[in-house]
């Protein structure tokens, strides 16, 4: 087990370093130079040159990269091109907002999708199973902002007016106000995740239903309920729970468009804004943070799966 | 010694499953599936709109002369009018064009590039596989929408207030590149199964060169997963295009593109839900339809 953990950590680390190199290189292709962006069109070429020299933009690429990375590891992502404030001033609150939304989405999603998956497994091959599977598959491919827009139409100000269609920054908002304002964005994200988690729960439950230990439990005369709770669900759902954390990374793809739709200034919203105004210290920081979140989530999921399933931790040593 | 079972049917003189037969049977199974038929009808409808949208649509998509802003749906304008008084039904019909222009080309590009990469990784394995594999891990750590935003920002020309105008060609390239790693991973695992089989060993002993073995020997045997990837990536290409257009990367107003329509009118959803919900349903129907096709193809080929 220890070797497996060390292996996964090392691989994750290598990939993260590679990711940071790639995004730094990509950002260098960005048209225009920093001095021009900060000083504006009117600045003289000399002033632009002076500015770039002052901030070290005329040094070789590898030197700048190492510099940037060693600062970034210590939590310093540099200053905005636009207003000179530290990137982290906006990034940290945005990250908190996105995580709040992500946790909310998972809390909405997990109970319903596990229940649906178990029901589908118990009704295997019947119309209920088909309906749950097809619904899940379809919801998983509809873009999050489309689901969000349809949800707002139904439950938002246009008809039922149960929930607001715009979230905003929610500064100083109470916990209940946050839950209310973020219900529709969280639900849109939850619906996209529904299909995957339900499919995992369905597969896990089906495997446990077919297992010998379930037959033994039934044949030795246990009540149906005991067989289900003690034998089928306990064995069938543990892998599902481990797999859920790998979905966090997927969720952050959807969060970009959802935050934009609802005007909720989280990491996704910040990414889009930074890209539009070419504020590239911020853009780099956002992409790197999203990458780190993905790695931590995937690693947690893999380690949980390994801890629960000896077959994985003993055979996947590559 | 073969065991002869009493009453068993006689062994047929020639094999029943010639490649042509298998292919015909596969096609028959796909074409007869109700989910495939439903998916194909909806997809073909939007393809028709993409090609002949201006002829089908009752009005011109950017004609603003019909009356008031945000007129609600009526007999003359079944989907209502938008903020500047354009007919939404016509805009939804003509809006199919931009996505149909980009999505199939992007998915083909992504699958082609990814298949080559996957063939190389699976065939050479070892160090090559390890290095490319780590790069792929790194790229896949960022959701493809974020990857797309980064690339498009790097490629795009001038900035504007609302968004960055991006040509269809750039979108095809960026979405294709974003899909390359995930396709490479799928094809690689299919190639790993094939590479140790006898026919590959035989080709190596004959002294064939690696490109020949990869393209002529292995590629035809991993076409199943590749075809499945094309259909799955097509759905995600529509997804990616719609999302990028919504975020402002792609067709700009007054284009009737679905994603940019939603971005343009969303702030007024409490005044006029019809300006948002019809383009949204159009996107949803197209991705779900393509996904139904992909699901059928996958199920039949997996059997």
How would you describe the overall organization of this protein?
- The complex is a heterodimer of chains A (318) and B (303).
- Chain A has helices spanning 2-28, 34-39, 45-54, 61-73, 87-122, 127-141, 144-155, 175-181, 183-210, 212-219, 224-244, 247-262, 267-276, 280-308, 310-315.
- Chain A is mainly alpha-helical and 318 residues long.
- Chain A is globular, with a radius of gyration of 24 Å.
- The two termini of chain A are 13 Å apart.
- Chain B has 303 residues and is mostly helical.
- Chain B has 12 helices and 2 strands; from the N terminus they run ααααααβααααβαα.
- Chain B has helices at residues 19-32, 34-56, 88-94, 96-124, 126-140, 144-155, 168-195, 198-205, 210-218, 223-246, 258-265, 274-302; strands spanning 164-165, 249-250.
- Chain B has a two-stranded parallel ribbon with strand order 1-2.
- The chains are: A mainly alpha (318), B mainly alpha (303).
- The interface between A and B is large, with 55 and 50 residues.
How are the elements arranged and paired?
The complex is a heterodimer of chains A (318) and B (303).
Chain A: H1 2-28, H2 34-39, H3 45-54, H4 61-73, H5 87-122, H6 127-141, H7 144-155, H8 175-181, H9 183-210, H10 212-219, H11 224-244, H12 247-262, H13 267-276, H14 280-308, H15 310-315
Helix pairs in contact in A: 1-14, 5-6, 5-9, 5-13, 6-9, 7-9, 7-12, 9-11, 9-12, 10-11, 11-14, 12-13, 12-14, 13-14
Chain B: H1 19-32, H2 34-56, H3 88-94, H4 96-124, H5 126-140, H6 144-155, E1 164-165, H7 168-195, H8 198-205, H9 210-218, H10 223-246, E2 249-250, H11 258-265, H12 274-302
Parallel strand pairs in B: 1-2
Helix pairs in contact in B: 2-4, 2-12, 3-12, 4-5, 4-7, 4-10, 5-7, 6-7, 7-10, 8-9, 10-11, 10-12, 11-12
């Amino acid at each position: 087990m220890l070797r497996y953990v060390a292996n996964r950590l090392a691989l994750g680390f290598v990939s993260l370093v590679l990711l940071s190199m790639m995004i730094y290189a990509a950002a260098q292709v960005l048209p225009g130079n920093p001095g021009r962006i900060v000083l504006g069109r009117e600045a003289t070429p000399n002033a632009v040159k002076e500015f770039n020299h002052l901030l070290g933009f005329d040094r070789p690429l590898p030197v700048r990269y190492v510099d940037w990375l060693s600062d970034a590891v210590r939590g310093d992502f540099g200053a905005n091109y636009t207003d000179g404030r530290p990137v982290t001033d906006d990034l940290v609150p945005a990250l908190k907002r996105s995580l709040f939304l992500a946790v909310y989405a998972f809390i909405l999603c997990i109970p319903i999708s596990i229940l649906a998956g178990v029901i589908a497994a118990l009704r295997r091959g019947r119309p209920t199973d088909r309906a749950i599977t097809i619904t899940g598959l379809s919801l998983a491919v509809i873009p999050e902002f489309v689901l969000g827009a349809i949800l707002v139409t139904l439950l938002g100000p246009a008809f039922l007016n149960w929930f607001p269609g715009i979230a905003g920054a929610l500064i100083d908002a109470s916990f209940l106000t946050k839950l209310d304002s973020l219900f529709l964005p969280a639900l849109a994200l939850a619906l996209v995740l529904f299909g995957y988690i339900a499919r995992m729960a369905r597969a896990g439950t089906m495997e446990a239903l077919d297992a010998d230990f379930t037959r033994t439990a039934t044949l030795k005369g246990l009540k149906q309920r005991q067989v289900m709770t003690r034998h089928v669900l306990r064995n069938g759902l543990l892998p599902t729970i481990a797999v859920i954390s790998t979905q966090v990374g997927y969720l952050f793809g959807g969060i970009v468009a959802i935050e934009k739709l609802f005007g909720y200034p989280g990491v996704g919203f910040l990414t889009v804004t930074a890209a539009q105004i070419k504020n590239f210290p911020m853009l780099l920081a956002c992409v790197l943070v999203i990458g780190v979140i993905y790695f931590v989530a995937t690693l947690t999921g893999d380690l949980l799966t390994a801890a629960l399933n000896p077959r994985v931790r003993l055979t996947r040593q590559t | 010694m073969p065991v002869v079972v009493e009453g068993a049917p006689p062994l047929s003189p020639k094999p029943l499953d010639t490649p042509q037969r298998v292919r015909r049977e596969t096609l028959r199974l796909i074409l007869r599936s109700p989910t495939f038929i439903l998916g194909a009808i909806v997809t073909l409808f939007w393809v028709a709109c993409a090609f002949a949208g201006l002829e089908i649509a009752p009005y011109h998509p950017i004609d603003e002369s019909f009356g008031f802003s945000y007129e609600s749906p009526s007999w003359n304008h079944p989907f209502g009018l938008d903020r500047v008084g354009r007919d939404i039904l016509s805009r939804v019909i003509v809006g199919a064009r931009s996505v149909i222009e980009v999505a199939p080309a992007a998915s083909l590009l992504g699958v082609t590039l990814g298949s080559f990469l996957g063939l190389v990784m699976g065939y050479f394995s070892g160090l090559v596989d390890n290095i490319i594999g780590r790069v792929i891990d790194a790229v896949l750590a960022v959701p493809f929408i974020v990857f797309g935003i980064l690339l498009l920002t790097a490629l795009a020309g001038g900035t504007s207030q609302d968004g960055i105008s991006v040509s269809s060609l750039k979108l095809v390239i960026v979405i294709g590149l974003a899909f390359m790693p995930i396709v490479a991973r799928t094809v690689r695992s299919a190639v790993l199964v094939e590479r140790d089989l006898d026919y590959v060993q035989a080709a190596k002993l004959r002294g064939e060169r690696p490109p020949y073995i990869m393209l002529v020997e292995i590629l035809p045997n991993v076409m199943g997963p590749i075809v499945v990837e094309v259909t799955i990536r097509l759905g995600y290409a529509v997804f990616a295009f719609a999302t990028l257009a919504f975020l402002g990367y792609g067709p700009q107003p007054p284009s009737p593109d679905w994603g940019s329509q939603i971005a343009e009118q969303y702030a007024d959803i409490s005044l006029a839900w019809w300006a948002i919900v019809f383009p949204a349903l159009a996107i949803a129907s197209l991705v779900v339809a393509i996904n139904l096709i992909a699901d059928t193809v996958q199920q039949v080929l997996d059997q």
